[in-house]
Amino acid sequence: MKEETSMKRPLVHVKLLLSLSLLFLVATGATEPLSDAIHSFRWLISQPVAAESVGAISGGSGGVLTASLPGGEQEESIPVQGGSWTYTVKRGDSLYSIAQRFGHTVEKLRSYNGLSTNNLRIGQRLTIPPASQAQKSNTLAGGDVDMLARLIHAEAQAEPYTGKVAVGAVVLNRTRAPGFPNSVAGVIYQPLAFESVSNGWFYRAAASTSYQAARAAVSGWDPTGGAIYFFNPAKTRNRFIWSRKIVLQIGNHVFAI
């Protein structure tokens, strides 16, 4: 009987901790600033558990709650709000196991994070695509991927990796949009569509990062959310392009619909 009682104590302790934590948030939410409440709550929940620390950081897609577990290597990040997940690689992880866990393919994770191999290191942070981005992938021939990579290289060579993927996504979005050709080649070679085709830069060899970005776009990553135009606002005066609705900016390019 004494042994059964001792086994129940940890469970009771956890339930009591959770109840007190909820009451604490409700009580402090109306009497102290949110940042102070979060700080106090973080201290409270970190005391009885094995985690060494609990912290809150901000990411591009919202707040992320992180817990550092014993040993300093088992740290995992989970999203508080919608958007991409940030995951920190821990001992025993592989790209395959992480992909399986979050419902994506290995190729998807590699492309999304700009990885050239499947090798990971403990502590490495990976961005996990939202589940909604697992839906649309494109099937392209090797020649189409090559053309897409060369266009990305010519149009976005100096842009960040996400900006490169975004340029590729614009091309693919056009193949599905009314008023544009329905093939990668048709979109790229459409008269006056891309300056790099007109001036010859498109015909140069592409860097490996441009091929990675092209494959990421083909696998379904669209950082623009469906844009069909992009341009550099510092270099463009075209009235038509400026009349389009701008949805976001990545690097030197703005993307529009």
CA radius of gyration is 24 Å
CATH class of the largest domain: Mainly Alpha
On the 0 to 100 scale, the average pLDDT is 72
Strand order of the largest sheet: 1-2-3
Number of separate strands: 8
How far the N terminus sits from the C terminus, by CA atoms, comes to: 70 Å
Strand content: 15-25%
Instruction: List the domain count as a whole number.
Output: 3
Identify the CATH homologous superfamily of the largest domain.
Cell wall hydrolase SleB, domain 1
Shape: elongated
**SSE succession:** HHEEEEHHEHHHHHEHEE
CATH topology group of the largest domain: Arc Repressor Mutant, subunit A
Largest sheet: 3 strands, antiparallel
The chain-level structural class is alpha+beta
Describe the protein in words.
- The protein has 3 domains: 1-49; 51-135, Roll (Membrane-bound Lytic Murein Transglycosylase D, Chain A), CATH 3.10.350; 142-256, Orthogonal Bundle (Arc Repressor Mutant, subunit A), CATH 1.10.10.
- It is α+β, with helices and mostly antiparallel strands and 257 residues long.
- The chain is elongated.
- A hairpin with a 2-residue loop joins strand 1 and strand 2.
- The protein has helices at residues 2-29, 34-46, 95-102, 106-113, 142-156, 161-175, 184-188, 195-199, 208-218, 239-242; strands at 53-59, 62-68, 75-79, 85-88, 125-128, 229-231, 246-250, 253-256.
